[in-house]
Write a structure and sequence with these properties.
Layout lengths: L8 E4 L3 H12 L5 E5 L14 E4 L6 H14 L8 E2 L3 E5 L5 H14 L10 E4 L2 H7 L11 E5 L3 E4 H14 L3 E4 L5 E10 L2 E9 L4 E3 L2 E4 L5 H4 L8 E11 L2 H7 L4 E4 L3 E3 L8 E6 L4 E2 L1 E4 L2 E4 L10 H14 L9 E10 L6 E4 L3 E2 L1 E5 L12 H11 L27 E2 L13
Parallel strand pairs: 1-2, 1-13, 2-9, 5-15, 11-23, 13-24, 18-25
Antiparallel strand pairs: 3-8, 4-8, 5-7, 6-7, 10-11, 11-12, 14-17, 14-21, 15-16, 16-17, 19-20, 22-24
Helix pairs in contact: 1-5, 1-9
Bound molecules: flavin-adenine dinucleotide.
The site of flavin-adenine dinucleotide has 38 residues, from helix 1, strand 2, strand 3, strand 14 and strand 21.
Length: 429
Amino acid sequence: MVPSKDQHILIVGAGVFGLSTALHLVQGGYTNITILDREAVPSSHSAGNDLNKIVRAEYEDPFYTELALNAIQEWQTPFWSDFYRPTGYLLATSINAPQKARETIKKSFASIKDHPRFPAGSFSPVDSLNDIKKYIPELQGKMEGWSGYLNRYAGYARAAKALEYTAKICLGLGVKFITGEDGYATEILFGSEYKGKQVCVGVKTASGLVHTASRTILCLGAHVGTLLPNVTQQVTAKSWAVAHIQLSPEEVAMMEGCPVVNCRDLGFFFEPDEDTGLIKLSANGAGYTNITSNAGTQASVPTSSNEGIPKEDEELIRRLIQEAMPQFSRRELVNKFICWCGDTSDSDYIIDYVPRTIGLLVVAGDSGHAFKMLPVAGKWVQRVLEDGEQSIGRWRWKYGKEKSDDISWRVGQVKDIKDVEFSSPRSRM
Ligand SMILES: Cc1cc2nc3c(=O)[nH]c(=O)nc-3n(C[C@H](O)[C@H](O)[C@H](O)COP(=O)(O)OP(=O)(O)OC[C@H]3O[C@@H](n4cnc5c(N)ncnc54)[C@H](O)[C@@H]3O)c2cc1C
């Protein structure tokens, strides 16, 4: 049944999907929306709470290319453009890249190179150091054997700032925010059964408060399994390393305008942040789980502390700096942390009503590629909310699907975070 516009809608989690959902619902005329989060926006537990995130439309899968192109269109509108930087995007492999990484680049390029929605002249193949230096003079390294392409119809979002802005707009339009202990959901509440299904009536929070609603939408990112344990049959919490280097104002001026550089077998980085002069870098890899006993089963859940990064990732980041920006190779890595997202085997999102329940939706399985969708994702959730079911097969809750850690576009092997050495002391769990 389509919810009436004044029914209470409870969104749990004010990260990328939660805020986008609140925005689309409130803009769609819903007047009674509450959004809960364990922390104020941007929460330190949101994968989107970061200086920047890549916005690009190349995918192995053309389905997401279309969605990302819709998102890029939105990022360029006056509503979002303060938070979008169209620097372009270099996607490459280095000399020792595994075949899988090279194949991913070929598939990504195939998805966009003749696409009619890209402006003419968007792409340039990059097969030599000369090519890189011609298009990206900011890079001073040797980048031996790097090959790939430059996509000019791409860039990045100023991530944490875009989340803050979305929250501010939602607040201004009447969405109610509850954060801290009162917003930290610890239990989904069910009332009576109806036709063999459990009726969701809301959630309980760490402070003991009960929030009731006619529809409850879980947007908990990597944390979704802590509240909805059976989703971990499809969603695995995994983490990746993030670090920064500090540039002087003169160095910022030299690196300004540099496209996002993503070397598939090493990692990626952005132009310096305009407020802080920090360059953000992240290591590429298959990700780290944290397998623990969760509601009687073994599942991966985010660690309680995200401080510090694995030593092997610090080495990857250092190699990336050495190859592309050797002038900064002795620079200290600062603000090192791991960032969690929820991976599915096929990198498809799950946006659906939870089976055998009434009034409970889940938006999960972001698979590390949802930030760019901030301007558009909420309308996908609104459609499911109103249709009463998910009509897009790939976004449905999947029963008994075989889980695999061999994600087609990720490089390397998944490891458990407890089995790797950290580059600096950190608390775990
Ligand atoms: C290292 C890294 C790099 C990435 N780079 C990119 C990129 O370049 N481009 C891109 O498009 N995407 C990128 N992503 C992915 C992107 O950040 C995620 O897909 C996106 O943030 C997922 O949104 P979400 O709403 O599902 O979860 P999140 O944004 O993580 O939000 C979840 C929210 O739930 C809250 N929460 C958790 N538990 C509770 C609870 N019990 N009660 C109340 N609130 C709770 C958290 O505080 C948080 O605010 C990257 C991810 C990682 C890890």
